[in-house]
Amino acid sequence: MDCGSKCPRGQLLHLDVCVDEQKPRGGVLELLGRLRPQWKPQDIKMKVFTEGITNQLMGCFVGSLQESGAVLVRVYGRMTELYVDREREVEMFQILHTHNCGPQIYCSFRNGICYEFVRGNVLDDTLLTQPAIYRLIATEMGKIHSIKLESDNPVENILWKKMAQFLKLVHNAQSNTTAPHSSKLLREIPSIETLSDEMETLKRHLSQIGSPTVLCHNDLLTKNIIYDNKEGMVRFIDYEYADFNYQAFDIGNHFNEFAGTSDTDYSLYPRPELQRDWLTAYLESYKHSVGLEATVTELEVQKLYVQVCKFSLASNFLWGLWAILQARYSSIDFDFERYAINRFDYYFEKKEEYFGLTLS
């Protein structure tokens, strides 16, 4: 467990506490002693959430988890500092909270963060295809995509930089001859040379199709969507990868998540009819949020549909690289090798079809 890295958090409270992944209670109680001093240690309950495949997440509360005041403690996964910018993550938390699109972050600590518990339940995969639910998700994403920073400086799109970073880390990991390598990964994953060529092909093709750069979540799988049935609303959580990216990437990435995580099944990828209805709700929300007439035309939906199909390729490629790294470094019990293979298999299966789609 690496608890040595410390980084400045601006005005955010930073606590010099390290939480042990295997025995977290002692460290968590130390954090809560500062954040919730009125809580008696013997009354504090902790619920470990098992949905995550990057970090360890615990809900801390007295009484009921759904009552106000509950605290989420996130312990960073092993070696994730290689590819997650933790300072940027905190900045995204604060931006989204300011715009009423995210929970309040309370503090950072040596190997994690604490933030506000969002009332509701993690969205069940089966609800993704229900119109009332997916329209709520589309509407919320439209709101987030409309957020503009106060600075006049042009925003930087992070996709190709992030993809190149992942590819370099994969290359470095595979070049390390002292570490064991998975024969399954080496046999079924394309070579570094092939992956590098594919990334350049993606960059050439996707950079030319006119998808705007917006503030994106970039990791909208169901475990990062909280559904409040009583209020009839959804909220997004976990902003490790949130940053400015192509609009169509964020949507295409979410559509890829219909296939699930543990048992990836791309037959569940949304049908064109569902995608178009989703995109219509999204465009209505996005246009309204940026002050435009909210009427959506068939031409607008079709253009975004094609862009999303194409950027879904970039999503599969990026997370395929990510899964190779997780297979190498993560201590979480998950078959990252199979996940990487599934992501790349679907990328190559759909590449020719999606590259062939035209915007007109």
From TrEMBL:
The keyword Transferase applies. GO terms for biological process: phosphatidylethanolamine biosynthetic process. This is ethanolamine kinase. Belongs to the choline/ethanolamine kinase family. One of its GO terms (molecular function) is ethanolamine kinase activity. PANTHER family: CHOLINE/ETHANOALAMINE KINASE, ETHANOLAMINE KINASE 1. SUPFAM superfamilies: Protein kinase-like (PK-like) (SSF56112). Gene3D superfamilies: 3.90.1200.10, Phosphorylase Kinase, domain 1. Its EC number is 2.7.1.82.
